[in-house]
Amino acid sequence: MTTYTKADRAPLTERQEARRRRILRATTQLAARGGYESVQMREVAELSEVALGTLYRYFPSKVHLLVATMYDQLDQLHAQLRRRPPRSAGSRERVVDTLLRAFKGMQREPHLTEAMMRALQFADRSVGAEVDTVSRETTTMILEAISGDEPAGEPTAEDLAVIRVITHTWHSSLIAWLNGRASIAQVRTDIETVCRLIPED
Amino acid sequence: MTTYTKADRAPLTERQEARRRRILRATTQLAARGGYESVQMREVAELSEVALGTLYRYFPSKVHLLVATMYDQLDQLHAQLRRRPPRSAGSRERVVDTLLRAFKGMQREPHLTEAMMRALQFADRSVGAEVDTVSRETTTMILEAISGDEPAGEPTAEDLAVIRVITHTWHSSLIAWLNGRASIAQVRTDIETVCRLIPED
DNA sequence: GCAGTTACTGAAACTTGTTCTAGATTACGC
DNA sequence: GCGTAATCTAGAACAAGTTTCAGTAACTGC
After folding, report:
1. Domain coverage including residue B103
2. What pLDDT score was predicted for residue A191?
3. Residue A156: in which H helix or E strand, if any?
4. Distance CA A12, CA A16 (A)
5. What is the per-residue pLDDT across B119-129, written as a single tens digit (0 to 9) for each?
6. How many domains does chain B have?
7. Is residue B140 part of a domain?
8. CA B177 to CA B173: how far, in whole Å?
9. Helix (H, G, I), strand (E, B) or coil at A99
10. Does A42 reside within a domain?
11. Of B167, B181, B193, which has the smallest distance from its Cβ to A132's Cβ?
12. CB under 8 Å to B111, separation ≥6 — which residues?
């Protein structure tokens, strides 16, 4: 089994890699300040010291840009989880812990979260590949929480179905919270509720 | 118990009601043809023979317009379900039936569905009230499926949590299908999976 | 080190959602 | 019916995402 920490992507020169990072950093910064609508392409370009055309060469749309940012953040979260994985008893509890920990992180930067999640949910077919990447990373994280220290054989179709439902709930619930239509407690409840689909072990 | 078939709304004169209906009809038409991006405010205005400013007076944004359209469609579905409610044995099965029937309807107009669902997911705080309306209607539909012919006492907090999770899954799953990231079979599986949260009776 | 290709810049142009304005029309209280 | 206020219309204007283009800079193969 091969694991991809970084998404596969055409190889970039050093300066290009630097540009890409500047762009993502600028996006994160603007998003953290005012959410989705504060991420304006002209501002991102200016802040990352790149021409507008170049920005669009790297990320073909605002949604692509924000989904890439999401992947970036997710990657950091994932690394952090690998350093200090949840230590609870059952797989169900580990998944709940994982998601609640992620949620706690997101509460620290609600605007950033809003920008990324809105983009993820709004993304259409043209962003399919990128959304899939995020989706795979999320799946991996949850799978790792389920297996814990165990060897972790191939996930069954059933496992994958449950994980899909969990991520669906996770995303929608988060959006509802960001929009003020759900409380923090409700998000927590929803996570716990959906995780009941994970068999006790 | 009072039931609201129509959302409460400032009383309108006959001509205003007619305008409103023309606008919703035009929106449905355009959405059915080409989805979210085909619903262009100028076109909606022209097709419904209303000035752009008037369109904005009735619906303060494109997202408001599409969420209102969603409510409208949902209302029709709900009426239809009341005429011929699912007759399956358990509440779980009735909910699955209900959602699958809704899904079948949506497969008939994928573009329209895409437009409405994208708007619903993209909606921000400013559309909170309207989204809540849709959300309540959905909840009611599922609750009715759960109770079947029975008297149907007040839903418990647990019931509501399960229903929230079901709707979250329902929406996200649908979006994934519309974006070509999930097959029809997967949507079906996801629905069946999440409905396992409903206790057997 | 050079020719040729590809990438980047700055700026204008285009698209579509949204707002604004001035004047015409309609609804409403009396 | 009449005057007043709210509503509607046509159309310009504005905002932000996206595209385009001419010119400049950087990379690549030789």
Report:
1. 62-195
2. 96
3. none
4. 6
5. 999 999 999 99
6. 1
7. yes
8. 6
9. helix
10. no
11. B181
12. B31, B32, B33, B34, B35, B38
pLDDT in tens, A114-170: 999 999 999 999 999 999 999 999 999 999 999 887 777 788 999 999 999 999 999
Helices (H) and strands (E) counted in chain A, each on its own, are: 9, 0
Residues whose CB is less than 8 angstroms from the CB of residue B133 and which lie 6 or more positions away in sequence, other chains included: B7, B71
All residue ranges of chain B with pLDDT < 50 are 1-6
Q: Which nucleotides of D are covered by protein (CB under 7 A)?
A: 7-12, 16-22, 26-28
How many residue pairs bridge chain A and chain B with CB atoms within 8 Å of each other? Answer: 95
C-alpha A88/C-alpha A72 separation (Å) is 27
* CATH code of the domain containing B144: 1.10.357.10
Can you state the percent helix, strand and coil of chain A, rounding each to 5? 75, 0, 25
B186 to chain A: closest CA residue: A161
Percent of all residues in chain A with a pLDDT value above 70, rounded to a whole number: 95
Mutation choice for B interface testing from A126, A164, A173 by most B CBs within 10 A: A164
Does some domain include residue A86? yes
Of residues A109 and A3, the one with the higher pLDDT is: A109
Establish if A20 belongs to a structural domain.
no
DSSP state of B90: S
Task: Tell me the one-letter amino acid at B20.
Answer: R
Instruction: Name all contacts of B148-151 with Cβ < 8 Å and 24+ positions apart.
Output: B148/B85, B148/B91, B148/B94
Contact A173, B168 (CB under 8 A): yes
Distances (CA, A) of A169 to A115, A160, A166, B171: 18, 14, 5, 9
Q: How far apart, in whole angstroms, are the C-alpha atoms of residue B159 and residue B157?
A: 5
Q: What's the confidence (pLDDT) of residue B139?
A: 95
Residues ≥6 apart with Cβ < 8 Å to B151? none
Q: Smallest Cβ distance to A190: which of B123, B165, B193?
A: B165
